[in-house]
Amino acid sequence: MPTADAVLRDIVLARAGSEAGWVEENLEALRRGAPERDLHIFLGLAPRRLGKADLVPTAAELEAAEAARPGWRIDGWSLDGAARVLALLVHAGQRPFADRFKDLRRTSDVAEMIALYRGLPLYPEPETLHFEVGEGLRSNLRPVFEAIAHDNPFPRDHFDEHRWNHMILKALFVGSRLAPIIGLDERANPELARILREYAHERWAAGRTVTPELWRCVGPYAQDEAALSDLERALSEGGAGARGAALALAASPAPEARQLLEGRAEAEEIAAGRLDWNRLEEAA
Where are the alpha helices (H) located in 152-276, listed in sequence order? Predict the structure, then answer.
């Protein structure tokens, strides 16, 4: 079974070109316990020496990442970001990892912060990082928030229900998609469904649209008249909103949900496998 740092090392070196020797030399020094100053120097030089191109991982590399850490997704990472996370993983520092992470986060620019947060599923002692993760979730910068929320198994594995629900609601507030959130279905809960329905009511009252993705977390808990009424309203709006409502009704355990779907084109699309949450916007 490959380790995460071994997978990252292979990925970075495969793209480092003439800088591969520089990367290997520095990683070995960090592994042997080089001063923290050397870690900072490497992190600062990585974008200039390696560039900021997207990794564009191969199928084999994606498979290796999943084997090393289930749920870890490296598509979307940059080369310099991967090198930064790798250096942080291999550095045999004297201080606790959480202290080093905190200092790096507080002095980092946006690109560095995104890289730091994307590495969350790989770091040791994840229980010590909750405060710093909370700071990232409160960020007004959507890319920073999405580095935690999107394609990252850390929230699924380590957030309590309150923080999980807050993250989902924050995603809607900042216009971030829900589909890339790992564990979206398995971490759905009745309290989240209630919160999202209240949010939908606020949007409707203000004359604003409701993203159809919202209903994904509501459907499994839509059993009473009020919840089903909300979905019926969304169903009547047509378009993507109706498709989202139909998918939610299909997930509802209430017999009344079947009645609301009866005879609708969306129900036929769902039954035929042509409509699901991954194809919500593209469905006709």
Answer: 154-158, 161-173, 190-205, 225-236, 239-251, 255-261, 265-271
Burial (0-12, 13-18, 19+ Cβ within 10 Å), 97: middle
Which residues of the chain form beta strands (DSSP E)?
Answer: none
Rounded distance between C-alpha atoms, residue 113 and residue 188, angstroms: 28
Token output for 82: 């991967």
Cα three-residue angle 48-66-130, rounded to 5 degrees: 70
**Token digits for 46?**
């990585």
Give the three-state DSSP class for 54: strand
Distance of CA 168 to the CA centre of its chain: 10
119: enclosing H helix or E strand: none
- Residue 152 pLDDT: 96
pLDDT for the residue 282 = 60
Q: Which residues contact 206 (CB under 8 A, 6 or more apart)?
A: none
Percent of the chain with pLDDT over 70: 99
Token pair, residue 14, equals: 């495969």
What whole-number distance in Å separates Cα of residue 204 and Cα of residue 127?
Answer: 39
Q: Considering only CA atoms, which of 212, 208, 253 is closest in space to residue 231?
A: 212
φ and ψ at residue 248, rounded to 5 degrees: -65, -40
C-beta of residue 98 within 8 angstroms of C-beta of residue 130: no
Rounded Cα gap, residues 200 and 117, in angstroms: 30
CA 43, 47, 49, 54 torsion: positive or negative? positive
Instruction: Record the pTM.
Output: 0.92
